[in-house]
């Protein structure tokens, strides 16, 4: 009887270690994805880490899969701390939430015109002249 209980205890410990290793590699993948998204959007990933915020079941192509939510903090200009979140299924990014950036502050708007202030990084867009779909 004690051999069976020892075997069961060993299996439970092995399952816990395996789950911990799997979650650790998933977290490392989330850190890499957060770095990549911050670099892509011109943000700074603070503390170089992410934290698991939640797990939920999500239906993908008729299959129920676990989706993990990771939270992290980013800085837009180096003087602030804004929250960001990413959702992953396996190693794939399914959703991303980053803070919004106001590119043109209200005090730099030239009154009476639709043009951006001189020296700002706003690109003026013009409407398309032809209405064909490409």
As a whole number of angstroms, the C-alpha radius of gyration is: 23 Å
Sheet-strand content, in percent, reads 25-35%
Q: How many E strands?
A: 5
Number of domains: 1
* Low-confidence segments: 106-113
Q: Report, as a whole number of angstroms, the end-to-end distance.
A: 73 Å
Number of helices: 1
Protein name: DUF3301 domain-containing protein
InterPro entries: DUF3301
Organism: Rhodanobacter panaciterrae
Question: Could you give a quick summary of the protein structure above?
Answer:
The protein contains one helix and five strands.
Q: Features of this protein?
A:
single chain, 134 residues, alpha+beta, five-stranded antiparallel beta sheet, 1 helix, 29% strand, elongated
